[in-house]
Each structure stands twice: as structure tokens, then as C-alpha cells.
Amino acid sequence: MGLLFEFLDIAPEIAEPAHPEALPEAIRDGIRFEKVGFQYPGSPEQTLSDIDLSIRPGQVVALVGINGAGKTTLIKLLCRLYDPVQGRITLDGIDIRQYSPEQYRSLFSVIFQDYSQYAASVKENIHFGDIASPGERLSIMGAAINAGADGFISRLAQGYDTPLTRMFDEGHEISIGQWQKLALARAFLRKSSFIILDEPTSSLDPEAEFEMFENFRERISHRGALMISHRLSTVRMADYIYVMDQGRIVESGTHQELIQKEGIYYTLFSKQAFHYKDAEAWQ
């Protein structure tokens, strides 16, 4: 109990501004990182340095790089789980620290790599993506269909009412790939302005991954999107790609532009493409 009370006494480091700005009714310019730097408390080194990046409304942006490059940290700053120690992040030209944190975060639907698996029904697992919504079956089914989850859900004994995990007497275990589809449905349920996907298809089989990105813009209702993926075949459809290395953006451009530069992106892509196509076929 002492640990619980100690936890409840923790004050949030990101506080509500005295006079918060109203969120724009319609986002015009989108989000911009301007010379952003970040260092975790107690860490001797910066995790992010001199980051310039933008996400416009309706634009699909991809973020690629090896593990430890700072991609997930950038997402945490974008969602204002932390604030930059240098530079600023703006929404339509206004520093996001001038908005109410709760209202600002409502702009985003997010699926992190370590998404949660709740011991609850399928319907509840998806509804947790937007607990402020009424959780109507039609909207939950729509999110599941967009995530490619409706097929396996309909085959479960109780459909969307099936309890998941063996914690329940009639609980059902599903595969890690099926859990990831539920996490995607959870992100798709919220009617947000931007959707953020951190390795969204890491546990999906190649067929499911292909179906997801074949009509990706329709699945996300043409919202702005920021996507992290190590599978560079999935980021080719992005409008713009940023390449990160050691906490910095070292390359940016479209897929074709980055291939022509023959830099880090070219090297990573060619290694992944080597066993599938020859050099002329994938350029």
C-alpha cells in the first residue's frame, strides 16, 4: 500500500499551461520538429540531436534506421510524453507546450512495439483504443476490418465477445500476430488527426502485411501518419522517408530519391532486397 500511495503522490512533470491555446479546428500546416534535441534524465548522452521533421495533414511519413537510432524516443516527444531539451515542436506554428497536454494527445492514435494484451473480451480489447467512445459494435467491427482482424475474430466461438487468455474458464488464446491485429484495430478506432505506428506489422505474416499496405491510406481514412518499420518494403509507399542514425536524421526524401543517393537507406534496402530481386528490378 505504501508503494501505491507513493505512486499516487507523483506529480506530472508535464503540466497544464496557465492559459492553454485552443486546438485548431482544422489542422493546416501540421507538425514540425525544429532543431529538436533530447536527453533522458540521468543519461550522459543526448538521445536526439538537431531533429528537423514535418508531418502534414494526410501525409504518410516513414522513419527508418537501425535499433537504438532514437526512433521510438522521437515518437514519445511527438506525443508529448516528454518535452525537448532543445528546439521545439509545433502544431500549425504554435509550440505544443502551449496546448493542453490532454487535448493535444487526443490528436493521436498510437501503437507502440510493446502494445498491451488485455485479459478481456475481443470487443473490450479494441474499445480500449478510445474509451471515451460509446464502443458501438459497428465502429469496433469497422476498426477490426481495417486492421485485418475481423476474419479470425468471426471464427472465434463467441466472436467479438470471446474472452481472451486462459485467465477465463472459456478464455481463448490467440497468436502474437492476431494480438498485433487487435492492437492495430485499437489504434484505428480513435477518430484522431494522426496515427503513429511503431513496427505495426512485425508479427504479421507476409500475406497479411501485403494486404495491410496495399490500401493503407484507405484503412487509416487518409489521416496523417508516422510509421516506423525495419521492413523497408513496407515504407516504399510513404510520401516521405526520414533515415535516422545515432539520434540524428542523416537522410530524407522519397524512396526513389533515397535509392539514387546510394547512402544508408540504399544500403539497408539493397540488403533486404538481395534475396528477392536483382538491383535493376527494385530501383
TrEMBL record:
It is a multi-pass membrane protein. Keywords: ATP-binding, Membrane, Nucleotide-binding, Transmembrane, Transmembrane helix. Gene3D superfamilies: ABC transporter type 1, transmembrane domain, P-loop containing nucleotide triphosphate hydrolases. PANTHER family: ATP-BINDING CASSETTE SUB-FAMILY B MEMBER 10, MITOCHONDRIAL, ATP-DEPENDENT PERMEASE MDL1, MITOCHONDRIAL. Residues 31-271 form the ABC transporter domain. It comes from the Bacteria. One of its GO terms (molecular function) is ATP binding. This is ATP-binding cassette domain-containing protein. It is found in: Cell membrane.
